[in-house]
Amino acid sequence: MFARLALCAHLPPRISHSNVYPVSIRAFSQQKFNLPRSHGKSFAHRSELKQARRIVVKLGSAVVTRGDECGLALGRLASIVEQVAMLQNQGREMMIVTSGAVAFGKQRLRHEILLSQSVRQALHSGQNQLKEMSVPVLEARACAAAGQSGLMALYEAMFTQYSICTAQILVTNLDFHDEQKRRNLNSTLHELLRMNIVPIINTNDAVVPPPVPSSDLQGVNVISIKDNDSLAARLAVEMKADLLIALSDVQGLYDNPPGSDDAKLIDIFYPGDQQLITYGTKSRVGIGGMEAKVKAALWALQGGTSVVIANGTDPKVTGHVITDIVDGKKIGTFFSEVKPAGPTVEQQTEMARHAGRALASLLPEQRGEIICSLAELLTEKKDEILSANKRDMELATASGLFSQALISRLSLSTAKLNSLAIGLRQLAVSSKDSVGRVLRRTRVANNLELEQITVPIGVLLVIFESRPDCLPQVSALAIASGNALLLKGGKEASNTNRILHQLTQEALSIHGVTDAIQLVSTREEVEDLCRLDKMIDLIIPRGSSELVRDIQRAAKGIPVLGHSEGVCHVYVDNDASIDKVIDVVRDSKCDYPAACNAMETLLIHRDLLRTPVFDQIIDMLRTENVKIHAGPRFASYLTFSPSEVKSLRTEYGDLECCIEVVDSMQDAVDHIHKYGSSHTEVIVTENEDTAEQFLQLVDSACVFSNCSSRFADGYRFGLGAEVGISTARIHARGPVGLEGLLTTKWVLRGEGHTVADFSEHGSMKYLHENIPVSHGSFN
To answer: Where do the Aldehyde dehydrogenase domain residues begin and end (predicted)?
Structure first.
């Protein structure tokens, strides 16, 4: 919570308006919003909403009031106030258009009437037992008059907790249509905003006439204030607001009435798209309805203000819905005048799923032909690929934003492309034994046979940083396994990714499944992609540990396959051969230090300290320019030690490593289990018993004896390619190749069998006989 900046004082008398009720003022905030913007044109993309400086938040009746329509939803309102205060204290200018006076007054008047009736009955009967009392229908204008002061007092109390002062303004149609009143209102609002005050605005429901249906929401200069939707739109345009956030009790606009089976939330709504939506009924309270919201939103958009309609009642998002919208996250429906040239990510996902089913139905040989075609294109078009990659490398280097390790991952070469092509051809051969393979066959009963067969997972989303060679690898695996694929690469490799995706689609076109693999090139945030839980079946992140952790947190409804870190260990046993030690340690650390399977911690048996073996290890690391960090125990043995390690769980991703001392093989295993990431661990020893114990005891995805940690790779394992290395303990572990992208389904074939046939008095008995499955047997 922000500290109080100054005591509030009454507004000076020079600020006055017949409809303004001064509350309090704090010292002007010294924090200025650092993204000034000239008003005139609405934002084209959600990501630009972070630049919004002046924001109107409209709170619908359903948001502000309780479910019984008597009284306010205090918890929900407090959460909204907290978000508005946070944005205000960032230096933005916030305004609130609020409903709720009628509900607040209704609660208050009902209480007064019931209290009055109970007193009269008590006096009349002289008894404590009261008859059942009924409350007359309360007139809305009277409720508004009784509720306005209480509603404003509540807002004032809530905002005071954040050292923010408020002012109330009640308006009617005349305040906008009478030129003098309109100028006065405009001047008052600008003065309040200048003094860092949040105006709380509402229609003066105590005097306003009942709404009359009309079609006057046309043109920039004509709009009647019939409800708070039209008020918020008129106010936003009048005050040249950058953003109008309209909160209601629905998620946004749907192409069909919300709640119907076919209803889909519209992410972005464009002028002229009205024919795409069907309006449902209006909310339980309020007088506008969704049609009024859309008309008001389009009117505001025409006037240069961006609009988002979102749900302000959902307890899962209410606590951050406003700040999420301003952060550019995919919340509700965003109104935009700029229609993108290509399909939306939702449309891309639908296209991929449809084409992916066609891909899965191809013969294994046909999928193999596609992969071989892609392998040929990688070598045939290598000059174009390397030219695009060179542009990416130059831009990344010139930007100064990327580490050398990341730039190393970005680089492609002729050798890399040739290696990729070899791996894809290897995969094309193995893919013939993939989709539709029978894993198990059982005779459940006479003429009732069961099969378990392999099938694609569905739609995969692979998010990767830097490494463009990931794109053809993952694409080939998706093709081999019959999965649809969405690819989201880093912008630092955009040129390379673009041409590699074009080549992939060219290969897919030979069997008419071009759309099965889509490259997401729109401004989609990773977090927004992770929310497509009804469209994506598995997410595979490939990149930094930070990226993987962020995706694992964001993808609450979608499984994530991957590892967050690659803290790999090499343990040098006291029975190790010096030649093997030098070769294995050098290769594990220096071959490609940016890889996730590179050694990060070198564990050395205590008996090797101050021996020629130890000295040669240190000399080799120094020769290779490896920076050494001393573990706590190692540092204790040295008079002048290297810099002591900050954490034994560090993934350096560069020519750096930690050295630590252990007492035994078991001590090394315990260290790995405590500080490792379950990725890849290595022992170097000539003692076969010690080596076997290490291989059995260490609980990691890959455990090696007397060989480099860099062998933890799908291509080197003979998988042809990999989508990544998984440290999970279910589904797939280690390098994930073709098998890791398949799931199973059960197929049962009968002749009119029923469960009743197998009951106690039925005529059939279960056999459950296993039927041998020959290698290469397909459904």
So the answer is: 344-624
